[in-house]
Amino acid sequence: MKHTITIAGGTGFIGQALEKHFTDKGHIVFILTRNPKASNHIHWDAKSLGAWSDTVNQSDLLINLTGKSVDCRYTKKNKQIILESRIQSTQVLNEAISKDSQLKLFINASSATIYTHSLDHLNTEDNGVIGNDFSMNVVKAWEQCFYKPCKKDLRKIALRMSIVLGRKGGAIPKLKSICALGLGGHQGSGKQWISWIHIDDVLQAMDHIIGQKHLNGSINITAPMPITNKAFMGAMRKVLRIPFGLNQSKYLLEIAAFLLRTETELLLKSRYVYPDILLNTGFKFKYKNAHQALKNLMSQNH
C-alpha cells in the first residue's frame, strides 16, 4: 500500500535516508524545512501554524525529526535552543492535526539518552531507569509534549534512538577521523556501553513499526548487542587496519571537548539499552553485531 508521508526536519542524515527509502518504495514524501530546496520541500518555521498544516492533514504518516544537534557546548543559550527546538516543533505539529485529518500515525524522534548512565542495568522500555539531568529532562519534556492528545485513534510512537551508524552521517565520520589521527583508543575508562544501530536497520524498523498497527508509545531503536567503548574503538581500528590508538583520559577529553565546542557526555555516558519491543514483535535485525556493522560501513567508505 502506498502512503503519503510528511517528514518534519527531514533534511538531515536520518531524514534524507528515510526520504530515499520511502520514495524508492513508491510512497509520496514531503519535507517540512526552514530552507526549501526541492519541489517536495515545504516551508515552515517549526513553531508557527501555516499553510504546511494542510500537507500534514492530507498525509497518512507524519515523522518529526526536528531539533538542534546536541553536538555542541551546553551553554545556557544552547540548552535553551536544544529544548525549545524540540518542544516547539512537536507542539505545533500536534496543534496542526485536525480532528478530520486522514493522519493515521505520528512518529516523533526521541533519544535513548533518557535512561541513566548504567554499566550493569540493561534498559528495556519496561524496566528502563529514567534519571534527572539536563539531557534526560529534555527528552522527558519532549515525550510529554508529544503524547498530549490531538486526534482520536491517532497512533503515536516516540523513537528512543541510540547512536546511529551510517556511511555519510551519524557517528562514523568523526570516529573514523579520530582513528586516522592515531587517537582511536578508548575514551575515559572504556567500560561505558555504546548502544548503537545501523542506518539500514533504522529504515527497516520504521517499516516494521508502520506495519505493526497495534504498537503505541515509546520504542527503543537500538541493536540488541550493546558494546563497550573499548571494544567498539578496537573494532573500528581493526576494520580500518590501524594498528594502534592512543587512549584518552577524561581530563584530556574535557580539554578536547572545550576546543571542539562539544560535551564529553556524548562519549562518556554509558548507554546500555535493549530493543525489547522490536524483538518481541518479530523484528529481525540485519546488523546485530557492531563488528559486522562497522565492516559493512567502512568497506564502502574506502
Describe this structure in words.
The protein has eleven helices and eleven strands. Helix 3 (76-96) packs parallel to helix 4. The model has no long low-confidence stretch (mean pLDDT 93). The strands form three sheets. A seven-stranded parallel beta sheet has the order 3-2-1-4-5-6-10, sandwiched between helices. A two-stranded parallel sheet has the order 7-9. The chain has one domain: NAD(P)-binding Rossmann-like Domain (Rossmann fold, 3-Layer(aba) Sandwich). It is of the alpha/beta class. The chain is globular. Helix 4 (134-146) links the parallel strand 5 (105-111) and strand 6 (155-161). The two termini are 38 Å apart. The protein is 38% helix and 16% strand.
